[in-house]
């Protein structure tokens, strides 16, 4: 089944402005997608000039999402997902991975980019047993997001939920109260729920990441990398699942499955993708 929110959201654009770069479209460009425009490609190329491996890093981050969902469904028994900062739909979306393992899984996607809204109905589907919904909303306002009718109709917050924050928290400065935002999400879900985070870092190459931050700022985009310790701090209120907060390519590589990533048996440089990743469980 498919549900979508069709109403315009106060304060959020519903028309696509192709003259300025947007995070979701830059990421789509790095992943080889087609839903991006000259401004997005210009920023993507500017960042790639500082970090030549950025495309493979984006793919590694995407591959982690698949591994995380496999763990959550197959080992943790989770069948509900709140995926915030969804990005433009592509192969291996959360509901595709989850419903392959559990056809009754339910997923709510959230993004503030109108191009994601435009493509959501066409590119996202669901099994008959499960359900998929999309909300056009902004994580900076978690209260409205959580109260949205599409969320309440799709996810039962009396049962555990996985909150997916994959490559989204870097758009929050410390002054934006990222801990408060995540805390609001965790407060809304019951014990036994999970929190999934990946986060870019300057820990592996501070000079190159400083150039990335500058390029993003020049394009009007907030980009705030965090250290491993600071990323781990975002999991406050949860118990980290082994192996804890680690470089994204090293988190449970045996769960790779069919997503494009090196074989679990292949040695991978832990610093080949500049993201920290982890999963925490709400006790």
Give a description of the structure.
Helix 8 links the parallel strand 5 and strand 6. 36% of the residues lie in helices and 15% in strands. It has a single domain, classed as Vaccinia Virus protein VP39 (Rossmann fold), CATH 3.40.50. Strands 1, 2, 3, 4, 5, 6, 7, 8 and 9 form a 9-stranded mixed beta sheet that branches. Helix 2 runs antiparallel to helix 9. It is built from 10 helices and 9 strands. By secondary structure, the protein is α/β, with parallel strands linked by helices. It is globular.
Key features of this structure:
283 residues, 10 helices, disordered N terminus
Helix/strand layout:
Blueprint: E1 2-4, H1 23-30, H2 38-50, H3 54-74, E2 80-84, H4 94-101, E3 106-111, H5 114-123, E4 131-136, H6 142-147, H7 149-154, E5 162-166, H8 178-188, E6 194-200, H9 206-218, H10 228-233, E7 239-240, E8 246-247, E9 275-281
Parallel strand pairs: 1-4, 2-3, 2-5, 3-4, 5-6
Antiparallel strand pairs: 6-9, 7-9, 8-9
